[in-house]
Structures are given as structure tokens and as C-alpha cells.
Specification:
mainly alpha; elongated
Length: 75
């Protein structure tokens, strides 16, 4: 819903920020471990289900890690 009214440049900026934020958390390497390293398909997620994810965690993921986006010059 958030991206529905964004320009293409804003969507690229949002996607970059979201990707960086996701990689900063332990969930990403745990998913890589379960899928590509150990190939056990048994990730041990921090939150057992979507309902357990606190809103503060989601807000952190959806916030930009930069004061000014590296893609700020996109038109």
C-alpha cells in the first residue's frame, strides 16, 4: 500500500532501503544458512509466525538507513 502512490524513483529508493535493512538483521543469514549452506530447509526464525512480529520491527525494516538516499538523484 505504501508504494501505491510513489514515483518510480521513490520505489527504487524504497526497495534499496528495504533490501539493506533486511540484510542487516539475523533473519537474512539464517535463511541463507537453511537454504544454501546446510540445505536443511529448517530456518530458525526469530519470530515463529507473522503475528509474532512486533510493529516496531516492521517499522525499522521499512525505514531508510540513510539520512539521504544514495539514489536521491533519480528523477
Amino acid at each position: 500500500k505504501r508504494a501505491r502512490h510513489m514515483s518510480l524513483a521513490e520505489v527504487f529508493q524504497f526497495e534499496l532501503a528495504l533490501s539493506v535493512q533486511c540484510c542487516r538483521h539475523e533473519e537474512f543469514p539464517e535463511g541463507v544458512r537453511a537454504l544454501l549452506v546446510d540445505k536443511d530447509g529448517q530456518p530458525r526464525w526469530r519470530f515463529p509466525d507473522v503475528a509474532s512480529v512486533p510493529p516496531s520491527f516492521m517499522e525499522e525494516l521499512l525505514s531508510s538507513p540513510w539520512e539521504t538516499s544514495p539514489l536521491a538523484d533519480l528523477q
